[in-house]
């Protein structure tokens, strides 16, 4: 069996959706002839895979800066500055210090540990996944020294990211770093067709492959989870009120017997509360807060319908949140709300797992019909295609990655 060194900042039990893509890869890649070894910073607890995980030392530049000036570690720097002028000056400083990202302090430790591994053990390829872009900077150094083939996986784009946080000047400088770094990669991968097209505009004449995110087929609760007695529409995951808009939903449920439950982190709770008050749905909306992953998965299974709030910005049309794949695994009808079109709608149409609505009248009718069916039968019918859903498992994701590894590796079968 050939071996691949996976360079990633996010890996379970780090609580991030990004971790699940790497967890699935580490778990299922051996089924396709590749043994993974994961290179990552210190984890907050024991990892849950059978893969070998090598944890490096880690230095957080911003953390050191906070400590040196006496700031509290748990609060952002902006929150601890007394004036807007000081916040502006610190942001300008951040354009230089936080380069290419907040995790740049990981680079020397990861390169040192990675080169030691590559010198002592036999590997056949290197794989890196971003964000952060520092993971690719590390992998480039490892490739330069080892001459091994390298896949750079951009599950989130780098300087083309839709939430790129820095100034145009910083972006232009960092884009040169991205081009210089990824020029050495033997293949680029990303999660959707639209993102692959954006990558191709910047990285011309490069081998680019689409490998969608997925779900772990073994992760769902083993015991049957009974449906709730009430019609509950459940959302799990992080909610960004400025980037996802539940206003249409709140208008649609005003006269319906529907409860909406948000499980996870709400970035701006006050904004969500204002919308709840504005549309008079306070008695219908529950903000449940953070729960364990196991509880969130169980909540998905007990809900008659699952809610997905798609990104509102057209620039994000190639982005599929990792939650939609968990929803596919849960086997409950999915209701997606957002702008017209995009990869989320395409995915729901392909799998038959749900519907996407962008206007009030069709949305209200869809919900009214669902409530009526649920009250009449105690369940909702589904047109989901199990074979097409299975194509989005982590096993199939790993099969696609293994095919790319085979493609770029000398002597591949």
Describe this structure as you would to a colleague.
A seven-stranded parallel beta sheet has the order 3-2-1-4-5-6-7, sandwiched between helices. Helix 1 crosses helix 15 (394-408). It contains 15 helices and 13 strands. 41% of the residues lie in helices and 15% in strands. The relative contact order is 0.12. The mean pLDDT is 90. The protein is of the alpha/beta class. The termini are close together. Strand 1, helix 1 (17-28) and strand 2 (34-40) form a beta-alpha-beta unit. The radius of gyration is 22 Å and the shape is globular. It folds into two domains: 2-60 and 103-214 and 393-408, Rossmann fold (3-Layer(aba) Sandwich); 232-390, Rossmann fold (3-Layer(aba) Sandwich), CATH 3.40.50. The chain has helices at residues 17-28, 61-69, 84-97, 107-120, 134-146, 168-182, 193-202, 247-252, 269-278, 293-302, 323-330, 343-351, 360-377, 386-390, 394-408, and strands at residues 2-8, 34-40, 52-55, 125-130, 150-154, 187-190, 208-210, 232-236, 259-263, 285-289, 305-309, 334-337, 354-357.
List the helices and strands and how they pair.
Blueprint: E1 2-8, H1 17-28, E2 34-40, E3 52-55, H2 61-69, H3 84-97, H4 107-120, E4 125-130, H5 134-146, E5 150-154, H6 168-182, E6 187-190, H7 193-202, E7 208-210, E8 232-236, H8 247-252, E9 259-263, H9 269-278, E10 285-289, H10 293-302, E11 305-309, H11 323-330, E12 334-337, H12 343-351, E13 354-357, H13 360-377, H14 386-390, H15 394-408
Parallel strand pairs: 1-2, 1-4, 2-3, 4-5, 5-6, 6-7, 8-9, 8-11, 9-10, 11-12, 12-13
């Amino acid at each position: 069996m050939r071996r691949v060194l996976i360079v990633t900042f996010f890996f379970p039990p780090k609580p991030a959706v990004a971790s699940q893509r790497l967890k699935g890869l580490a778990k299922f890649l051996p089924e396709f002839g590749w043994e993974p070894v994961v290179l990552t910073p210190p984890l907050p607890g024991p990892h849950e895979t059978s893969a070998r995980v090598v944890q490096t030392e880690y230095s957080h530049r911003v953390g050191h800066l906070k400590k040196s000036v006496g700031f509290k570690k748990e609060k952002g720097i902006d929150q601890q500055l007394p004036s807007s002028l000081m916040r502006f000056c610190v942001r300008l400083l951040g354009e230089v210090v936080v380069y290419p990202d907040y995790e740049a302090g990981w680079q020397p430790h990861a390169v040192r540990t990675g080169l030691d591994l590559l010198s002592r053990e036999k590997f056949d390829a290197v794989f890196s996944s971003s964000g952060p872009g520092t993971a690719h900077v590390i992998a480039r150094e490892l490739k330069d020294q080892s001459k091994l083939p390298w896949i750079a996986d951009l599950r989130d784009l780098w300087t083309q990211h839709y939430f790129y946080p820095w100034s145009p000047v910083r972006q232009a400088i960092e884009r040169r770093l991205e081009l210089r770094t990824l020029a050495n990669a033997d293949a680029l991968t990303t999660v959707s067709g639209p993102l692959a097209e954006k990558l191709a505009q910047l990285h011309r004449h490069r081998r680019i492959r689409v490998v969608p995110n997925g779900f772990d087929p073994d992760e769902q609760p083993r015991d049957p989870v009974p449906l709730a007695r009430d019609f509950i529409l459940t959302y799990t995951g992080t909610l960004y009120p400025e980037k996802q808009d539940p206003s249409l939903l709140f208008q649609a449920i005003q006269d319906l017997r529907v409860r909406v439950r948000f499980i996870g982190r709400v970035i701006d709770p006050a904004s969500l509360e204002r919308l709840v008050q504005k549309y008079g749905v306070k008695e219908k909306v529950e903000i449940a807060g953070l729960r364990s992953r196991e509880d969130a998965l169980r909540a998905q299974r007990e809900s008659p319908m699952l809610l997905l709030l798609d990104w509102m910005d057209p620039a994000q049309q190639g982005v599929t949140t990792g939650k939609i794949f968990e929803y596919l695994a849960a086997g409950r009808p999915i209701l997606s709300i957002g702008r017209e079109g995009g990869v989320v709608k395409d995915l729901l149409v392909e799998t038959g797992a749900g519907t996407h609505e962008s206007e009030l009248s069709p949305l209200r009718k869809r919900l009214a019909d669902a409530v009526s069916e649920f009250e009449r039968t105690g369940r909702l019918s589904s047109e989901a295609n199990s074979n097409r859903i299975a194509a989005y498992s982590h096993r199939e994701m790993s099969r696609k990655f293994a095919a790319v590894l085979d493609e770029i590796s000398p002597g591949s079968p």
